[in-house]
Sequence to fold (266 residues):
Amino acid sequence: MLKLEHVTKTFNRGSANEVVLYTDLNVEIQEGEFVTIIGSNGSGKSTFFNVVSGNILQDSGKVFFRDKDVSKIPEHKRSQFIGRVFQDPQKGTAPSLTITQNLAMAYNKGKHFGLTSGVDKELIPLFKEELTKMELGLESKMDVLVGALSGGQRQALSLLMATIVRPDLLLLDEHTAALDPKTSDLIISLTKRLIEEKKMTTIMITHNLKHAITYGDRLLMFHKGQIIMDIGKEEKKTLTVEKLIEKFNSLNMLDALDDELAFSAN
Ligand SMILES: Nc1ncnc2c1ncn2[C@@H]1O[C@H](COP(=O)(O)OP(=O)(O)OP(=O)(O)O)[C@@H](O)[C@H]1O
Fold:
């Protein structure tokens, strides 16, 4: 459903800050897959999402979505079929609007009245039902300003906003990294439930090796702008943190695991 073909990207070309990131990135994600991505800092994970979502344009190469070349389609148009949740809980939600208003905005995404805070009353039961399913008690806070919520509650809301209209592709960019371990586990199980319920093709970047191994049915590892490991469904079923580290070791790639990733395995 998603294919990147011969993608190249260099930042700040010709300057002292030049970063040659991708020289030939190729990847294909199948309909219905739940792919987890790990990789050291600066290995090109978020840029991958930026290229897929149209937030930045590749220098050359192509992006296909369901066999359609979307390489030149702008981000706001791609957001009609791609949902994205960021690491920062502040990023996905509007703090000065209520939960209901935030959900209405997400529900109306792309429609010309999408940026107003007026709420169609008929939508309220749907929002209430979706919030209740999250089991965080947010259904009793629908008129509370989002700025008053905790980071975990905001991230749960971001997740719901990204999926309230089922996206064809869901991109999760370290969406649990800014949360404490308990809240992070809660958001990740919520994520799993939503993905299964809505049967969404999903790609999740994580610095948490355990999450990367436990969730999803395929694991990609980025290193220096390349995908150096692609572990499929069958192998992933029996994968453990120890086996993964052993694999790195045998490939002489332990340096691809930065401190933060290695730490998350403990
Ligand atoms: N807009 C940009 N302008 C200049 N350089 C950029 C830009 N976006 C990314 N880069 C550079 O490209 C490299 C890859 O960045 P990217 O954010 O994709 O890495 P990452 O794997 O997501 O890292 P992290 O785990 O730290 O988030 C880094 O060296 C980064 O500084």
Observations:
- The chain is about 35% helix and 25% strand.
- The mean pLDDT is 89.
- The beta strands are 2-11, 19-29, 34-39, 60-65, 68-69, 82-85, 169-173, 201-205, 218-223, 226-231.
- The first helix runs from residue 45 to 53.
